[in-house]
Amino acid sequence: MAKEAEKLQRVIAADLHIHTCLSPCATLDMTPRKIVTEACAKGLEIIAVTDHNSAENTPGVIRAATETGLYVIPGIEVTTSEEVHVLGLFEEVDQAFAMQRIVYDNLQAGKNDEDLFGIQVVANEFDEVESINTRLLIGATSLNLSEVVDAIHRRKGLAVAAHIDRERFSVIGQLGFIPDDLDLDAVEISKRLPIDQARNRFKEYKRFAFITASDAHDLKEIGTGSIHIHALRAHVAELRQALKGTGGRRIEY
Ligand SMILES: [Zn+2]
Ligand SMILES: [Zn+2]
Predict the structure, then answer these.
(1) Mean pLDDT score, 194-223
(2) Mean pLDDT value across residues 238-248
(3) Which of 43, 111, 227, 241 sits a CA distance of 20 to 30 A from 73?
(4) Helix, strand or coil for residue 161?
(5) How many Å lie between the centroid of ligand 1 and the Cα of residue 25?
């Protein structure tokens, strides 16, 4: 027990919201290897890959991180029918891909306009182009907020309301409030708002765990927003406990 308590002193730096070159709005050098190299250089031990409405680059980043010690969470940033961004963070790529299937089945029809939004590159662990995704990933799904949260939970993921302090694409920006019955695992505060100010501004939502992350769209942004997890090891199960504040796990900023 004493030993466990000692180990819980371990503080793991995590940036849980990072886009890759698959997101039309991210830069093309957000490739798997470069992301991993940058994350390691910044001292991060956990990153989550959260592209808009797709998880197709999660295997490339996970494989690029093999033998680096960096733990990569396969994730997705889903756009709900209310145009709210919700992060789904999963333990396994298969779960993220299962979520991606329901997202693709319900994604706004149409093709990505590369000139307008940017190219959507699927890359492997060697930063080679595997394919170009032509879906309208920047679009919204026809799934509403609670459907998205439920779909994430059914696939054993953590559901996080993204950048709630921002006006655009956030639950508070779009709806004006967080519905009482919305079963979120955390709310994300953008890196622009210091966490103590966020706690004051969002007092009525103190029932939720607060996280912050970079929402990086280019390499230099990686790690510019992060949390510190007191846990035994870098793993989604530990993150889940830290968000709940159970088992001695907790989050610092
Ligand atoms: Zn977003
Ligand atoms: Zn984002």
Answers:
(1) 97
(2) 96
(3) 111
(4) strand
(5) 11
Instruction: Note the pLDDT tens digit of each residue in 52-108.
Output: 999 999 999 999 999 999 999 999 999 999 999 999 999 999 999 999 999 999 999
CA of 6 to the centre of ligand 1 (A): 37
Q: How far is the CA of 51 from the centre of ligand 2 (A)?
A: 7
Q: Which ligand is nearest to the CA of 214?
A: 2
Instruction: Classify domain 2-252 by CATH architecture.
Output: Alpha-Beta Barrel (3.20)
Please give the model's pTM, rounded to 2 decimal places: 0.97
* CA-to-CA dists, residue 195 to 73, 120, 186, 187, angstroms: 23, 33, 13, 11
Please report the pLDDT score of residue 9 as a whole number. 74
Q: For residues 19-37, b (16+ Cβ closer than 10 Å) or e, as one string? A: bbbbbbebbeebbbbbbbb
Burial code (b: 16+ CB inside 10 Å, e: under 16) for 206-238 equals eebbbbbbbbbbebebbbebbbebbbbebbbeb
For residue 138, give the nearest of 107, 159, 160, 166 by alpha carbon: 107
Q: Say which ligand is closest to the CA of 171.
A: 1
78 Cα to the center of ligand 2, angstroms: 9
Question: How confident is the prediction for the chain on average, in pLDDT?
Answer: 96
Q: How far is the CA of 195 from the centre of ligand 1 (A)?
A: 18
